[in-house]
């Protein structure tokens, strides 16, 4: 019996051994993408539910404030789920965390779809949010740990596009059920998302745990290298597998030494860890202040109350809006590593500011021509958001955070996103009802402020190795000793030099054409020059010692 239990436990961690190579990676990608799809679907499904007369009757015809609270409780649950994942994911593993999040979503969906009173709906929204918080904190980590580094940026864009696909499904679901009177209008959409969660549960059962997690937490069982060889579809003694295994073990060694506490989120630590944590929190919170969830959650409400459309037409227009949202997201796949993060943040925030001012003006004028223009501006707003503030935000937070607080900081940054989401969803309906077009002007001002904050404080990270981002925040004339931080000048505290320095490093990175030159080959964790014996003159296209000296000199000049 003991041997059987041990074998079953081993099979849980290694998954179905007949899955290898591309089919295995595709299965893992489908699970992670389904997590994002579920997130998008759950974001959009309430847009049609809250305007259904049958749902309103079942909820006792609640006030606008109660409706917005019921909708926003989902984000309260998501905050708790994301924070809980920060504490438990490393202990449970990626696979168990995905299963746990999916089971919680199933329970929450059943509570919502079968509810007979308002309290049950509220509890269901919170429980579903907790499950989504778990999935959204775990899926990106799992995906990044099984993919090769060159694939990670693309994977984030793919997953965000799948989130928009889920959003589109929910809108068309609401439109189709509009023609079916009765409680099915709102019960079926809320229960339908169970299928996505069940898919994640079933497929995840056959998947292996992350090889990185296995090598860290179960090093004696040799399961990590076995899973890695299956992911790369090569024998365990293949040079590529051995090299990647060695790199993972080295990273584990470094990370175990650098693992930070929760208090390290608020300490300088010599690399401005606290300020970088605030940057990650800020960019995720500012994403919600852009006003995107005015459109995501309340597009049909916006079309009916602000533009005077019928319920049927508003649902159809909302569905077309999400189709455009999805199509527009594909452009981000191409421009995110060409234009850069800062340029996308700033230009698209200014674009959203202009569009929202025009939208508010059209709503204030309120005639046939202005209403047509208002619809066009809603489409333009979603374009600006998905090009500049969708995938880019989810990519930027882990890029800017230092190694020792990356996991905790990224989880709390996601929680900040959900907090902002809650606030926007909570205030939007009463704002539209009470101050009308001025709501759009308020969010236009938020976008202008967002652009200014990014312009002043947010460095560029495009193309930089994660470790080299540390060097952006170290001023050459600054004492990095934490004890002297109180004596630093106002100029040094604000770090105006971070932004231009980051651009210099990005340009240097393009010149060298090798993402490992700057940090991994030449600079140790303290920013000192380091020439690795393992990297001098091997046969993998490394540069000569003379060229290396030239590049070190160039980097020293930049840094």
TrEMBL record:
The keyword Lyase does not apply. The keyword Transport applies. GO terms for molecular function: carbohydrate:proton symporter activity. Its main location: membrane. This is Major facilitator superfamily (MFS) profile domain-containing protein. Gene3D superfamilies: MFS general substrate transporter like domains (1.20.1250.20). It is found in: Membrane. The chain crosses the membrane at residues 21-41, 61-86, 98-116, 122-142, 154-178, 190-208, 277-299, 319-336, 343-366, 372-397, 409-428, 440-458. It is a multi-pass membrane protein. PROSITE patterns: MFS, SUGAR_TRANSPORT_2. GO terms for cellular component: membrane. Keywords: Membrane, Transmembrane, Transmembrane helix, Transport. Residues 28-462 form the Major facilitator superfamily (MFS) profile domain. It holds the Pfam family Sugar_tr. Belongs to the major facilitator superfamily. Sugar transporter (TC 2.A.1.1) family. It comes from the Eukaryota.
